[in-house]
């Protein structure tokens, strides 16, 4: 590259070193925490219903009323969406590093506060829990654009996709750990405080101490984030931000000389030449150069999350159908938490975690575009395969479970990983964090549609079969057909997303251009460092 800065060239050409792995762990621990916090709520909603909405006259244990269930499950998504937009913008304004510690502290404080939710009435406890989970989501939202951007800007060009995918793959371990923590805590409480099944003794099926279970599970989420805070604060600002946005070549060279352990020259005159033309996010120039790319990243992430998060909704129905979850009234409260956690842990172990690491292994061989297209294709195939002979699957439960696990596998070895990676690569440094935040927020909007739209849509068409408090819906079969169609649309919009494999970030975004009044063509010469 004629105009490529030496410091950026050194980063692009660097061999995989120890600092790459520390960056993966430091950024990945945020993702571990965020998956733990977002997904652990599904482990405890049944318990919250039993504790706070107990009705001695009902033949079934207490459940959260629909509106409260929606609020408890969904308020963190709303916070995440707001956090992605706000911290994405802030990461470009103040720098990645300065904002990075702030999001982590917010996650730690709100994890602990969620577990300390209090109130005189059940509604009071739920309102406090929702308040803290909103702000927890806000912190988690900031982690998306910042972790992706930091990893993208630190990585070399040969393994950048695999490194960003590895950060995202920590989500799988977060979901898995959530299940394991719930298993340990519920087993310990079940052993210490014996309780009868609900249909034997309604009054004493929930031990008074069970109220500690959900609090401990939620508060544990603060621990991994707290452990990495010190290391996050010690990470230097990325050279791409310092040089291309803050325009301080000397600082960028000094920071990366320490990280790479080589001597690098500060090239201030080159920094002054490169990309002085500062077009903004809402300019015609941005629309011309990056508009279609932004449409591609936002639409694919939106469509993916509709399918991904609504699939999670069917878990408890599927678990009950195949006999993994006995009927609620045949279990005590602690036993139910244990059984739900066991089922979720098995799904995470078999479908969720392997999918992420397949992406890490193959992304630099197959490319982002191929993996995303393939993932959407197989997700739509399996959704239709579940939907069309839906009656058949009611009697062939093991087949249904295999198909269901494969849907998750191809979401993670597919668009769930690539929609996170690509926005961190295809936008200019000064707008990278903002555009990643916008793409991620579109995804969370899809998650809200998936979680709540399909919670209502998947209800039975027969009034006598709907869950308590819900209107009739279109039924699970039709809901799965809609999701199959959503995945087909995802394939279509993937065509707007460019392939970025093996190219330097500045080559992809056009930031190596000089401002001499005309568009410069790129040369692909290697510059000696």
From TrEMBL:
Residues 23-502 form the Major facilitator superfamily (MFS) profile domain. Its main location: membrane. GO terms for cellular component: membrane. It is a multi-pass membrane protein. It comes from Gossypium tomentosum (Hawaiian cotton). Keywords: Membrane, Phosphate transport, Symport, Transmembrane, Transmembrane helix, Transport. GO terms for molecular function: phosphate transmembrane transporter activity; symporter activity. It is found in: Membrane. GO terms for biological process: phosphate ion transport. This is Major facilitator superfamily (MFS) profile domain-containing protein. Coiled coil: none annotated. Belongs to the major facilitator superfamily. Phosphate:H(+) symporter (TC 2.A.1.9) family. It comes from the Eukaryota. PROSITE patterns: MFS. The chain crosses the membrane at residues 21-48, 68-87, 99-118, 162-189, 212-231, 345-363, 369-388, 400-424, 436-458, 479-497.
């Amino acid at each position: 590259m004629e105009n490529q800065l030496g410091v950026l060239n050194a980063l692009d050409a660097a061999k995989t070193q120890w600092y790459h792995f520390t960056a993966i762990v430091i950024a990945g621990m945020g993702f571990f925490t965020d998956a733990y916090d977002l997904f652990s709520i599904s482990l405890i909603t049944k318990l919250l219903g039993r504790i706070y909405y107990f009705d001695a006259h009902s033949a079934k244990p207490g459940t959260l009323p629909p509106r409260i269930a929606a609020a408890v499950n969904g308020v963190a998504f709303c916070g995440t969406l707001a956090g992605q937009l706000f911290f994405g913008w802030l990461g470009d304004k103040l720098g990645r590093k300065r904002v990075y510690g702030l999001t982590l502290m917010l996650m730690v404080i709100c994890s602990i506060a969620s577990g300390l939710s209090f109130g005189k009435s059940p509604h009071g406890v739920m309102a406090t829990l929702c308040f803290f989970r909103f702000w927890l989501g806000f912190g988690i939202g900031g982690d998306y654009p910042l972790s992706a951007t930091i990893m993208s800007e630190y990585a070399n060009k040969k393994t950048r996709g695999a490194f960003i995918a590895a950060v995202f793959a920590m989500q799988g371990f977060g979901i898995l750990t959530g299940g394991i923590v719930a298993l340990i805590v519920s087993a310990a409480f079940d052993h210490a405080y014996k309780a009868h099944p609900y249909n034997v003794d309604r009054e004493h099926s929930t031990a008074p101490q069970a109220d500690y279970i959900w609090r401990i599970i939620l508060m544990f989420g603060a621990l991994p984030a707290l452990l990495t805070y010190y290391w996050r604060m010690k990470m230097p600002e990325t050279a791409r931000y310092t040089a291309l946005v803050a325009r301080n070549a000397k600082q960028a060279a000094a920071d990366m000389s320490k990280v790479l352990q080589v001597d690098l020259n500060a090239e201030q005159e080159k920094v002054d030449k490169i990309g002085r033309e500062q077009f903004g996010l809402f300019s015609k120039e941005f629309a011309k150069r990056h508009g279609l790319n932004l449409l591609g990243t936002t639409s694919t992430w939106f469509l993916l999350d509709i399918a991904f998060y609504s699939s999670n909704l069917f878990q408890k129905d599927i678990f009950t159908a195949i006999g993994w979850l006995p009927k609620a009234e045949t279990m005590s409260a602690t036993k139910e938490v244990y059984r739900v956690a066991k089922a979720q842990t098995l799904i995470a172990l078999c479908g969720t975690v392997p999918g992420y690491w397949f992406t890490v292994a193959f992304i630099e061989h197959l490319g982002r575009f191929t993996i995303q297209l393939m993932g959407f294709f197989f997700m739509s195939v399996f959704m239709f395969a579940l939907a069309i002979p839906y009656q058949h699957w009611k009697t062939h439960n093991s087949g249904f479970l295999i198909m269901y696990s494969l849907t998750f596998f191809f979401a993670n070895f597919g668009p769930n990983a690539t929609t996170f990676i690509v926005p961190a690569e295809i936008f200019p440094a000064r707008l990278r964090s903002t555009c990643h935040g916008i793409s991620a927020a579109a995804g969370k909007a899809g998650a809200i549609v998936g979680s709540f739209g399909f919670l209502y849509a998947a209800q039975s068409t027969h009034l006598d079969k709907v869950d308590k408090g819900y209107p009739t819906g279109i039924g699970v079969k039709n809901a799965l057909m809609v999701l199959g169609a959503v995945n087909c649309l995802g394939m279509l919009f993937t065509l707007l997303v460019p392939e970025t494999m093996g190219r330097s970030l500045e080559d992809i975004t056009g930031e190596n251009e000089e401002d001499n009044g005309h568009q410069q063509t790129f040369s692909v010469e290697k510059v000696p460092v």
